[in-house]
Design brief:
The chain is mainly beta. It has no helices and 9 strands. A hairpin with a 2-residue loop joins strand 5 (about 60-65) and strand 6. The model has no long low-confidence stretch (mean pLDDT about 95). Keywords: Metal-binding.
Length: about 110
């Protein structure tokens, strides 16, 4: 049985947001994103992949399509395939997000 504990994924970097993989297959990936205040993932899109963000701790501003709002722990946000999405830690504290994508994006 492959078991991971979310509390083990706390790696932050002053240079850029950190992505820590928990699980990955040909059908999905599940990561923990760690963002210090001010760090962001610039808006982008995936043509054939859906993404879900779940805020574990901290507060982040999410942009999904034309919508933009700040959310804290317990919030889950859906970014469907083909829609621009991004996230910024606009709070005063570190933030951690659980991020699921299916299928994983194709890399050229």
């Amino acid at each position: 049985m492959d078991v991971k504990h979310l509390s083990d994924f706390l790696g932050f970097s002053a240079e850029k947001l950190q992505k820590h993989n928990l699980f990955k297959s040909e059908r999905f990936f599940l990561d923990v994103y760690c963002l210090t205040p001010g760090q962001s993932q610039k808006p982008h899109r995936h043509a054939t992949s859906d993404k879900v963000y779940l805020v574990l701790e901290g507060r982040c501003r999410f942009r999904i399509g034309a919508d933009e709002a700040s959310h804290g722990p317990g919030a889950a946000l859906f970014a469907p395939a083909g829609v621009d999405h991004g996230v910024t830690n606009d709070g005063p504290d570190n933030a951690r997000l659980l991020v699921l994508m299916t299928p994983p994006p194709e890399h050229a």
